[in-house]
């Protein structure tokens, strides 16, 4: 059985219309404020080291040509 809050979160994330889908207008902050995540301390979570960091897929250095030399690139 899936809890009601989880069902609500999933249904809002799966809305086909991007204008009505949760997170499409206010970004991740709308998702973080959903009652399903009420016990999550987002600041503490951000500081927590991951339990596993996979090795890189390639051994060569990847250079991003984003037009801003010297600007760090964040990979997700």
UniProtKB/TrEMBL annotation:
- Organism name: Helianthus annuus
Q: What is this protein called?
A: non-specific serine/threonine protein kinase
Which GO molecular function entries does the Swiss-Prot or TrEMBL record give?
ATP binding; protein serine/threonine kinase activity
EC no.? 2.7.11.1
Q: Which Gene3D superfamilies match?
A: Transferase(Phosphotransferase) domain 1 (1.10.510.10)
Alphabetically sorted, this entry's keywords are: ATP-binding, Kinase, Nucleotide-binding, Serine/threonine-protein kinase, Transferase
Entry superkingdom? Eukaryota
Q: Which reaction does it catalyse?
A: L-threonyl-[protein] + ATP = O-phospho-L-threonyl-[protein] + ADP + H(+); L-seryl-[protein] + ATP = O-phospho-L-seryl-[protein] + ADP + H(+)
Q: Which InterPro entries match?
A: Kinase-like_dom_sf
């Amino acid at each position: 059985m899936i809890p009601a809050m989880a069902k609500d979160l999933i249904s809002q994330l799966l809305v086909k219309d991007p204008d009505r889908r949760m997170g499409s207008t206010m970004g991740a902050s709308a998702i973080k404020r959903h009652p399903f995540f009420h016990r999550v301390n987002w600041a503490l979570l951000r500081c927590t080291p991951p339990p596993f960091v996979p090795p890189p897929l390639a051994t060569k250095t990847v250079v991003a040509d984003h037009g801003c030399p010297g600007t760090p690139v964040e990979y997700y």
